């Protein structure tokens, strides 16, 4: 059954079509902004290794995973280690403090996109400092994004918009082992764009503006991660520099139990 489903999914075509939409949308946005071309993070959660290998074979390098155990298994998979040596893993799910070391010890970890609290920032900073002392491959700072709850939904993680500058400041001032590259949100699902722009995107861009103004940053150098399969085009139009696209590339996801 799995092979049949995989045969029906053309991952390489999905990558090409998604990159084409990113290019087209970005070309139009260039008239209004000097922000960099958005980075595509292919969200491979619940998908088999073979599909990741397909995506990698056509040049895709950045992959996102939501679940700690699944990321651990994929990052350490023998085929990934042999054939995808330049892969860059982005953790985009909720990270509990007791699972920090599991994630940070992984090969080819590129970024934690979901730093939603001072407690998590502290935990990551201390764990990365210890790893740097033990592992020559971990000498660079750990790339992170501050996650912001732009929709106000209780089930969504993230700092409140009014506290975004404060958390960003904490990471900059108190976490010397972290490289805070920007901001991220998930936002409310299913926005009706016939009613107007996505307010969650507007909220994140306002947080981005406040951070750039407060810390005198060039806006082009502060990343904005927002937009998924159903709205990444609108996210780019609003100012996103990282889009997280899964089902448009890999097909619909199977339901997965909560990460243990």
UniProtKB/TrEMBL annotation:
Does the record carry Ion transport as a key word? no
UniProt name for this protein: Pyridoxal phosphate homeostasis protein
Q: What does this protein do?
A: Pyridoxal 5'-phosphate (PLP)-binding protein, which may be involved in intracellular homeostatic regulation of pyridoxal 5'-phosphate (PLP), the active form of vitamin B6.
Q: Positions modified as N6-(pyridoxal phosphate)lysine?
A: 45
Needs which cofactor? pyridoxal 5'-phosphate
Q: What InterPro entries does this protein's entry cite?
A: Ala_racemase_N, PLP-binding_barrel, PyrdxlP_homeostasis
Protein family (similarity comment): Belongs to the pyridoxal phosphate-binding protein YggS/PROSC family.
Q: Which PROSITE patterns match?
A: UPF0001
The molecular function terms of the Gene Ontology recorded here are:
pyridoxal phosphate binding
Give yes or no: UniProt keyword Transferase: no
- Specify the Alanine racemase N-terminal domain's residue ranges: 35-253
Q: Which residues form a coiled coil?
A: none
Q: What keywords is this UniProt entry annotated with?
A: Pyridoxal phosphate
């Amino acid at each position: 059954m799995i092979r049949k489903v995989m045969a029906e999914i053309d991952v390489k075509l999905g990558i090409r079509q998604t990159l084409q939409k990113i290019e087209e949308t970005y070309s139009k946005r260039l008239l209004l902004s000097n922000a960099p071309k958005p980075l595509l993070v292919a969200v491979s959660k619940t998908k088999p290794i073979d599909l990741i290998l397909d995506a990698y074979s056509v040049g895709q390098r950045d992959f996102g995973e939501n679940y700690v155990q699944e990321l651990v298994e994929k990052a350490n998979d023998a085929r990934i280690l042999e054939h995808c040596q330049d892969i860059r893993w982005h953790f985009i799910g909720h990270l509990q403090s007791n699972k920090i070391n599991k994630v940070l010890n992984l090969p080819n970890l590129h970024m934690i996109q979901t730093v939603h609290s001072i407690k998590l920032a502290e935990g990551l900073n201390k764990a990365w400092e210890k790893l740097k002392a033990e592992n020559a491959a971990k000498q660079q700072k750990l790339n992170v994004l501050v996650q912001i709850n732009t929709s106000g939904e209780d089930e969504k993680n993230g700092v409140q918009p009014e506290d975004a500058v404060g958390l960003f400041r904490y990471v900059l001032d108190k976490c010397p082992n972290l490289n805070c590259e920007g901001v991220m949100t998930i936002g409310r699902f299913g926005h009706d764009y016939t009613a107007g722009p996505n307010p969650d995107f507007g909220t994140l861009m306002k947080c981005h503006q406040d951070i750039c103004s407060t810390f005198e940053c060039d806006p082009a150098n502060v990343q904005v991660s927002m937009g998924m399969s159903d709205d990444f085009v609108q996210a780019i139009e609003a100012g996103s520099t990282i889009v997280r696209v899964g089902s448009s590339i890999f097909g619909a996801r199977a339901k997965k139990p909560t990460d243990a």
